[in-house]
Specification:
9-stranded mixed β-sheet, 26% strand, globular, alpha/beta
């Protein structure tokens, strides 16, 4: 079987539409449709049902997923191993992290990398989704969760603190919250449940049972901006919020902590350009 056809099949299976699959693969929609038809003709089986809501795998398609994923794993391993022995300080390095970590240190680390090795092109993706390093969606990730996969290498960068913050205008209008009453009488700014499930119950170890949620966001920079604009009390990283003239620390004695990890696939640890990018990030944290 042609691996290109198999990867197109997997993209449609994961995205459910030809357009979305084409976007993921970087090819046009008509090509995706033709390659799927060619694959189904060569196998003599219909792999998808075409429905108004998208492409749904048939029983034959569900059977084909396991084999296609095995082909994908082998192809990606081959690619990683070849790149892992590449000693050239040039080419593309894909880095993924959250928008707040990008803004506070990753972009600056990439600036230093570019100054030292201008032939390395950085592709930086920010978001709250856990990008797959195994499927080469990224080469390096800066995360707040330590991975459990034995194929991934992780390095602890730093332990950071979080506190509760609000705009001076909010506190002037609503007063300072009282500890131990579940933020009764106050509005809060939190992450959406899919991003930080713990925000449904607590922020900075304080229950939110009596608080009113003013806004839910999926971005750390939006969390910061909503708090600055007086929408409510928010849990924010202290290194970002301390010293911000638009924010006041609520309960300075109340603090929570989180860890920051640098993660890469073991096969890429010998790649010169990936190693250079990793070193630039590590240099942002003395003692890491």
């Amino acid at each position: 079987m042609d691996w290109d056809n198999a990867r197109i099949f997997l993209a449609i299976y994961r995205a459910s539409t030809l357009r979305a699959a084409a976007g993921q693969l970087g090819i046009d929609q008509a090509t995706v449709g033709r390659r799927l038809n060619a694959l189904e003709d060569s196998l003599g089986a219909r792999l998808f049902l075409r429905t108004p809501s998208g492409y749904l795998a048939t029983p034959a398609g569900e059977l084909a997923v396991t084999a296609a994923q095995a082909m994908e794993a082998a192809a990606l391993q081959f690619q990683r191993e070849m790149q892992g022995i590449d000693n050239r300080l040039c080419g593309v390095v894909r880095v993924t992290t959250s928008d707040t970590m990008a803004a506070t240190f990753v972009v600056d680390a990439m600036r230093r990398l570019h100054a030292a090795h201008p032939a390395i092109r950085i592709v930086l993706t920010t978001g709250t989704e856990i990008t797959s390093l195994t499927r080469r969606e990224a080469d390096l990730a800066v995360r707040t969760l330590k991975p459990t996969s034995p194929d991934l290498i992780s390095r602890h960068l730093v332990k950071r603190s979080m506190g509760l913050y609000a705009a001076p205008s909010y506190l002037a209008l609503r007063g300072t919250p009282e500890q131990g009453v579940g933020l009764a009488g106050h509005d809060i700014v939190v992450y959406q449940g899919s991003v930080a499930p713990r925000h449904r119950d607590k922020i900075c170890r304080e229950p939110v049972t009596n608080a009113r949620v003013a806004i839910e966001v999926n971005s750390g920079l939006m969390l910061l901006d909503a708090a600055r604009k007086g929408m409510g009390v928010a849990e924010l990283p202290c290194h970002m919020a301390d010293g911000d003239p638009l924010l006041v620390r609520v309960w300075p004695d109340r603090v929570d902590h989180y860890d920051v990890w640098l993660v890469m696939h073991g096969d890429l640890s010998r790649s010169a350009r990936v190693r250079a990018a990793a070193d630039a990030i590590i240099e942002s944290f003395p003692g890491a």
